[in-house]
Amino acid sequence: MNFSHDTELSLRCAAALVNTNRVGGEQLGDQRLLGAFLNEWVWTGRRDGDDAELAAVWDLRDRLGGIWALAGDETAAVAAVNELLADTGARPWLTRHPELPEWHLHLSADDDPLAQRIGAEVGMALADVIRDGELRRLKICAAPDCDAVLVDLSRNRSRRFCDTGNCGNRQHVAAYRERQAHQHRDL
Ligand SMILES: [Zn+2]
Ligand SMILES: [Zn+2]
């Protein structure tokens, strides 16, 4: 696997977006929180800062979560990604700017609505994943009480837990306690 840097960034951003209401409650509850998210993920271009924009991002979040859930079904995932690309009117062009000085693709115009631009970029990144036969890298956290998503960019696709909920550590501790309990019973 060798995704380009902008594909990886888009995939990680998509997972982070989906997880904004899957770990610790709603993290994108208002425009200020959305602004912070956009700054963290270095989204340039148009920002309206109104309720319609926020609602559109929430819709996109649900839609992307739905695509993660389809990762085991290639045919369905392809249909969903094609639909996303069509709905967002993705049209690639090369650009670079101070926030990301390497040449990379933007998939929509800077003055297109925010959710449309995010959707187009993520749609294209997902198309890369599918072209590379790597859909299984889109995962749901393996912790039983967590439905956060992750994109497993590890060499051997070995990641099982999300970044967000400290789930890897929690499962490790749970497994340790389980072993301890068994040892005590065995004595
Ligand atoms: Zn850019
Ligand atoms: Zn998790």
From TrEMBL:
Residues 137-180 form the Zinc finger CGNR domain. Gene3D superfamilies: Jann2411-like domain. It holds the Pfam family zf-CGNR. This is RNA-binding protein. It comes from Mycolicibacterium brumae. The lineage of its organism: Bacteria, Bacillati, Actinomycetota, Actinomycetes, Mycobacteriales.
